Every structure is written in structure tokens, then in C-alpha cells.
Amino acid sequence: MKNTSYSSILIIVVGGLAWFGLPWWSVAVAGMLAAWFFPVGLGRSTAIGFAAGYLLWYSGAMFFDTANASMLSGKVGKLFLGLKSWQLMAITGTIGGLLATCGMLTGYYARALFVGHKQIA
Q1: How far from chain centre, in Å, is Cα 101?
Q2: Beta-strand (E) ranges in the chain?
Q3: pLDDT tens per residue, range 92-118
Q4: Based on C-alpha coordinates, what's the Rg of the chain?
């Protein structure tokens, strides 16, 4: 349970700090580091990665959307067949969740390859 909390906090903190100057895919690197330093099982890794990445990117999209009074999301939503701003934020969160999941899986398998792993429930 402790590694689960630490992994999700690491993804959110490092991924949030990465917005200041690093590329958009740096949340995958945060997920990889979380899986390397705080090992959990494979199923739990995917769940943690998706939940933390979704939460990070959805909250970031919501913050930036409210900062400009939803003007940009309204215009982008019109480009994508009239999507609402909450739908765009949900899609953004899903992309962030999938990206962090890929990072967590990469870290899990890299740790299993180089360090070896015990069966973790």
C-alpha cells in the first residue's frame, strides 16, 4: 500500500513539475521512475499509472481551461464536431493516463529485466 501511494504521488509531483520546461511526454518518464523505485504488481502498476496520469492531465486541463474562461476549448471543440469542453478535458486526461501507464509498464519491465523481481501481490 505504501508503494502505491508513493508511486502515484511521484507521478503527480514529477509530472506536474515537468510542465515547466520539459516536453509533454515527460509524464511517461515520471511513471517509469515511479515503477522503478516503488515496485508494485503488474495490474496495480497499470491502475496507478492510469489514475495518476489521468488526474494530473485532467486537473491541468481544467486549470488552463478556467484560466481563459473556456474560450480556447470552445473553439477547439467546434473543430472536433462540437465537443463540449468537459469532453475535451476527459480526452486529455485519458491521453495522460495512457501515457503514464506506458511509462509505468516500461519501468516495471525494466526493473524485472535488470534487477529481477519477486512476485508482488
Answers
A1: 7
A2: none
A3: 999 999 999 999 999 999 999 998 766
A4: 16
What whole-number distance in Å separates Cα of residue 68 and Cα of residue 27? 24
pTM given for the model = 0.89
97 contacts 60 by C-beta, under 8 angstroms: no
Q: How far apart are CA 39 and CA 1, in angstroms?
A: 11
Torsion angle (degrees, nearest 10) of CA 74, 80, 81, 84: -40
Set of cell numbers at residue 21: 520546461
pLDDT digits (tens, 9 = 90+) for 37-92: 999 889 999 999 999 999 999 999 999 999 998 898 889 999 988 999 999 999 99
Amino acid type, 69: A
